[in-house]
Amino acid sequence: MTSNNSELLELKNLGMASVxxxxxxxxxxxxxLQKLGAVAAYSRIKSRGIHVSKVMLYALQGALMDVHxxxxxxxxxAQLVKEAExxxxxxx
Length: 92
Description:
The chain is mostly helical.
């Protein structure tokens, strides 16, 4: 396991499958994820045809905030989904 894997795996909500997906879209460490942001990362994943649920979006945001995705407020989850839907419309 590389140090990049270790760094991402230390974040809440991210397991090896999530880390592999992040690597596939060019996110190799926390700084990459932070720069791109959860919504843009999720949108990039979806645009690559990788099938993930909204939980991935929540997991990415939770990883950035160092909280379990299930502890995100309903308002924040709704805002994330709204932004992701707007990104999807802008891409198509």
